[in-house]
Amino acid sequence: MSDIVVSARSVSKIFGNGPEQVRALDDVSVDICQNEFFTMLGPSGCGKTTLLRLIGGFEQATSGDILLEGQVLNDLPPYKRPINTVFQSYALFPHLTVRQNITFGLEMKGMPRREANGRADEMLDLVQLAPYGDRMPSQLSGGQQQRIALARALAPAPRVLLLDEPLSALDLKLRKEMQIELKRLQTETGITFVFVTHDQEEALAMSDRIAVMQAGKILQIGSPRDIYESPTHRFVADFIGESNFLHGEVRQTDGGAAVLTLAGGREIALAAMPVSGPRDNVTISIRPERLALYARNDQKDGLTGTIRDIVYFGTDTTYHIDLGPSGTDARLTVRVQNREGEGREFERGAQVGVTVPVDAIRVLAD
Amino acid sequence: MKIDTSNPLWRFRGITPMAMFFFAYLYLPILVLIVLSFNENRLATIWTGFSTDWYRVALSNDDMLRAAKNSLVIAVSATVIATTAATLAALGMARQRFRGETGVAAMLVLPLLVPEIVTAIATLLFFVAIGVQLGLISVIAAHTVFCIPFAYLPIRARLDGMDPALAEAANDLYANEWQAFRRVTFPLLWPGIMSGAMLSFIISLDDFVISYFVGGAGATTLPIYIFGMIRMGITPEVNAVSALMLIISIVFVSISFLIDRIRY
To answer: Do residue A79 and residue B166 have CB atoms under 8 angstroms apart?
Structure first.
């Protein structure tokens, strides 16, 4: 990829001291590139906001370096970093008008007022709120405040824009609109966006790359497609979308292929032996939509089971399959897209076969 | 009056007379004082006719005016010093948690709870011990002490209600610590500071016990002067002066209340 703008090198952050100390970030390294929409995704407490605050300069790393275009930023206060932030609470200055909010950063950088006002009008146009310059922030709706917060942070043309769960306070419809809006703004301004969210859909929809974080560590970095289709960790596969997890023992078969034997003795073909790790306790993940059902009397090879539950979702139907015999807890979720005249033959309690395409199987690292 | 029947208290029939009695108990004496300040008679308690003469007498009494000026100088000085100190204290206390924070917070508001006579005697003895001459300066110093908690509380309340991200946002937008304070924190804190200052001012203006103990001969304040007048008999002039003080107090407390309601 292109030039690296922001890097974290072996960054750790410990809050508190003594027995109450919390390791918010644990030896995290990441490179964020020019013009990238980079998302840090994870549950609350995973360290994503801490990393964002370290980049913004609001916290100091316990160890490790934060770099901007190769320069170490560690001791630089926020006001000396060409980085701006959209805060979760927006943090619009309530005593200033919308225009004064937007010109604040420009004036602090020493831009003459006339020029700053011109730039503010450009920004208001960019976020499609041109007529609102003279309003007070409290007179705007949540979605409008959000746009003003964006305009304010983008106005000084920062090298990097940090966004701390900016959409979490908006309702679903507005959030979807703002997702598209954010992506548009990022493309139009060409500024690197570093976005923090716990919402996997949001992350998939907007990002160029996603870093999935858990317990202060980055588990996997990749494009939305990589993260979704080839998760490397159970946590990633579970946190993003839905996944089936199966455990068993792998064994080499002829021609370089391998086979996974489940606890009940059922076998699933793998494309190859996993490169590393133990052989007797392997976890694989399969996305529900990659599986297919067929009536059992088709007599093909593969897994069989009983339909325990059918949930109809409109665009698709989800089947919960017990891989039986009872006593084994192996279950599969299969999602089938609804097409005219299909799927009717599957009823609760029916015996079915499940097709597992070899290329849908991901062997997880843990 | 619109009655909210959801409050079960309203089903008690005696509630209205009770409330009226309560307010009468609170305000009737003050009302009587104001009415009698317009009494024409030399004897304050015998009503003979309406007159504003006593206000004219009061306002042309040089001793009274000197006392009023002393009170004003003391109140303004104590307010400025106390409010400044309280603002700094509130900023320091709100920034981050530290060991012994609860103790420090308690120490800050303790002067509100210590019996005033104790503070008065202690301050007097202290001043005498370190050789401070009693006068305006000693009164200002003593007033500053009990004004600080009154100024501190509304400022701290404002600060606690402020999103900490606002100061961070200012820093983020290239404002250094001082600029962030001047352009964001201070304007947002201003109503709290004003409200605290108004309260301090009134508390200082009204104070009797401490002023009486630590004020020297040259530092007679208005409450002390009124006390002196009363000893020579209650005239409508005392009533008039008291009514004027009441008006000043009401004006300042109202301003303080209104400023504190400013929300952005």
So the answer is: no
